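User: Please look over both lines:
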Amino acid sequence: MKKHSLIRTGLKITGLLLTVLTFMIIYLPILIILVMSINDSTRGFGWEGFTLKWYMALIVPSAYPEMTALPNLIAAIIDTLSVAVLSTIIATILGTLFAIGINAMNKKRRVRMVVMNNIPIVNPDIVTGISLLIIFSLLSFSLSFYTVLIAHIFFSIPYVVLSVLPKLKKLDPNMYEAGLDLGCSRASGIWKVIIPNISTGILAGALLAFTMSIDDFVITYFTSGDEYLNVSTWLYTVLKHPRHFTPAVYAYNVIIFVITIIIIIFINNVRERKEKITHEKTI
């Protein structure tokens, strides 16, 4: 009995250590970025005192003219958010429509379309980036903001489709038919009957698309050229020239992380409330 007890204790300790190690690997870089975002140092990891000026520089950049790298970072942030928002909106609309079309197919065709949809997801980013670069070159497109936008829409759509399809499978098909019988056209039936019932899947797909876009480096690097820099490609460029670097980028990453946490908590609360209301109605 003692031997089995020691083995169980050893397994528990090992599991605890692995869990702690995993969380350290995941969250230690975030903690380091947080510390650097409130560090007055511009020369590395040495602590030189607490400051919030890197956050204030992002809010009021004109108040810090001595930060010569700040305008380039602000421009990169604007470009990043512009592409992320636009690609999310377009990819969410197209992905939702594609998911509705796929769901309406027979089983054999639906399986084929889902497999085709999953290929861009499992495909390595570098392969996707090079493929898009070749396509843009063949079409004589100059690499710019618009080629990055097209690329982000391309790789975001499959995530929206995968988020919406499970909600469509749970949807009672008779609801759409009932809407048509009550006077809805096919388009208004989709808008008034299907869309409200799959809204959580659409929102999840939109958040995934936004996250993939704002976080992307590899595909953006191959499709952006010299006219467009998002934050990740800007950081990759300035790390070769430390004089052009500003710690305000740490503050930007912390802000994005905090906003993401707030959105996740909000969505979980909304989902729990809906499930609670649904459960109370069934009772």
Observations:
- DSSP finds twelve helices and no strands in the chain.
- The chain has two domains: 2-54, 68-245.
- Residues 2-54 form one domain.
